[in-house]
Fold these 2 entries.
Entry 1:
Amino acid sequence: MVFSLELSEEQRDLRDWVHGFAVDVVRPAAAEWDEREETPWPVIREAAKIGLYGFESLAELFGDPSGISLQIANEELFWGDAGIGMALFGTSLAVAGIFASGTPDQLAEWVPQCFGDEADPKVAAFCVSEPQAGSDVAAMRTRARYDEARDEWVLAGQKAWITNGGIANVHVVVASVDPSLGSRGQAAFVVPPGTAGLEGAKKIRKLGLRASHTADVFLDDVRVPGHCLLGGKEKLDARLARAREGTAGGRGQAAMSTFEVSRPTVGAQALGIARAAYEYALEYAGDREAFGRPIIENQAIAFALADLRTEIEACRLLIWQAAWMARNDKVFDAGQGSMSKLRAGELAVAASEKAIQVLGGAGYSREHPVERMYRDAKIYTIFEGTSEIQRLVIARAISGRQIR
């Protein structure tokens, strides 16, 4: 597909629809659910009722050949509120995990169960990080053992910092099948609803994204049917054989295949936070007077906001480019996916911090949402690969060398 910066009529309608939901439903509820630190099920049900949350809507977003529709929806929703946005879109990471490694039959079976239905919506979880394996995915200790006699996989280990961990209907778990191969010896498994041996720990109390449930997940010899191995055993055996022979091929290991798909989308979420902070600061600066005039008329304020707007526009273009490349199977020859996540995450932090500075003491209080935006933004330089890891990926891509 030819890359174009002109949105189609469908994309403009999508942007306006999601923005309207963010204005009418998400923003009025944001402070309450941040304070309660609970999953905003009423908002999820409302989103499911109008078709914003569910298998069909996500399929349409993923199906856009430009790759941009998913980014538009995330930017607008997270412009509304990042905590509620993550409660709604956290499921999409598990779906991306199924999409990255699963067969068409597995997609048809498991993706609808990730969402439930309008009457009884569900959430899903993608389980990768561990207490000793965050950025270093190769250090993963969760093991998957095949029980040939029963055609079952046995999963054992602990996952950490899992969005929707323990409360999810479907858990997608990445585990090591052959530890000697490092990240190349890993595979992804679906743990169906109600499977014995999987337990979620107490919800983690966080700095930001408080409306989104985060918890550790424990896998105590969890048994899942053989068909729950995403991609199937024949494909896994072939990939492991190539890895043992030192031969490249395939899409790579399960966690990184998912991250390659998701990083531009995570960037779009961070961009939504940055834009929300910038717009709030801009409006405040136009209304707030000091020394007899609006503070926007001071160069120190005006130039800072001009810089933010410039960065926001540039960052969106980088995200859209990376999303288009991912959707159209273009090689990230310079780490464009990591570039989009890196730049957007750091911009979200910078924009929300600058918004607090523009508001002064008022920005430091909970009377204005910029302090919440600041808290929410910080995680975007940490999860799904820290800023340092993104720079490492980019450096390796542009140099062709194994930077350490």
Note: The longest strand covers residues 152-163.
Entry 2:
Amino acid sequence: MTEQDDSQQLSEPTDATTTKSVDDSWTNRIGGVWNKATTRLTKLLPVEQLAQTVVEWFSVSETQVAEILEKIRAELPTTEALLIGKPQAGKSSIVRGLTGVSAEIIGQGFRPHTQHTQRYAYPSNDLPLLVFTDTVGLGDVNQDTQTIIQELVGDLEKETGSARILLLTVKINDFATDTLRQIAQKLRQQYPNIPCLLVVTCLHEVYPADTVNHPAYPPDYEEVNRAFVAMQQAFAGITDRSVLIDFTLEEDGYDPVFYGLEALRDSLAELLPQAEAQAIYQLLDREEAGKQLGNLYRDAARRYILPFAIMSATLAAVPLPFATMPVLTALQVSMVGILGKLYGQTVTPSQAGGVVSAIAGGFLAQAIARELIKFIPGFGSAIAASWAAAYTWALGEAACVYFGDLMGGKKPDPQRIQLVMQEAFQAAQERFKGIRNS
């Protein structure tokens, strides 16, 4: 069987995906038989109670996860951006430009926060680097402006420790801004220390008729300049800076898609503290940002993978072939479920089991061999313990890649995940060598 045979097409963890994987993969059919057999063994052997104890021990360890996340969150240079503007004023486009995620993900990511606000955390709610709060209902004559202001004030009153900034988003040809000005003025009066940036959007809507693309930035068209000056005058005394942008979709045909992104970045950097400003620059370096986010989440995950690996070694050292396999399986499924939560994915136990089966199918034969070696007194148990610790570590590393792809809106790459697991396993074997002798 080739590595590619073992590597299934990975997708989001759903029960349907898990069922399809079991039906289509010879490796997983064998795995199903193995799981059934070991489940029967737990009914006959005292290991059943041990299995339940282990699973319960790790299920309550969500407190440890929360502590790890809280410590890392306190060290993150998180920026909270309050987006204030009418619908279709380009607020979601700003989120796309700053995060690099697709419009679909942003649409799914915003969740109701209060009656008139929605919130989206990037890259996840647990470890956010950017938190966007979007106002809804502005420009609707049926909405009470004072109620919207009260909700925003209530949100700002909550101490978060994060840097905050107000982003007033206005289309360049929309001069009905009285409500927006009223809200911004009230917020600045109560929170003068929170910087405010006026973001004027949709520039192409006032380009000369014969213009088919963006000019060199900044645009030097009379229509744009006149409207921009009028906007600046309308919000004089309220905003600290103003910037022109035009963030479109690829199908609109404008190049670049995020016109004025560098100007927006620099304006934000001038208004934010140094750490948060540096984070904004790093986020806009997409390749570097991907590496840094991956490292951030991987470091957090490793703090939790390690105790699972050590516990796996302890269980695998029991000198009774196959008796502890169900316990180890439950342990590893529990680990994958918690890692999913770390990456902002809600994973049921059955879905976590499907993920384990999908990304670790190629190690099944080795797992059986590890159990058979226990027939060698003493030496066999030590080898099994070292192997189990390394395998659990490698499984955790592979799960991080899998969930990291999902968090970034990408389809998991089975070959890359298998390669990561193989490399992690080889490194972990050296790390956990002789673990039972320590």
Note: The chain has two domains: 3-69+289-437, 78-272.
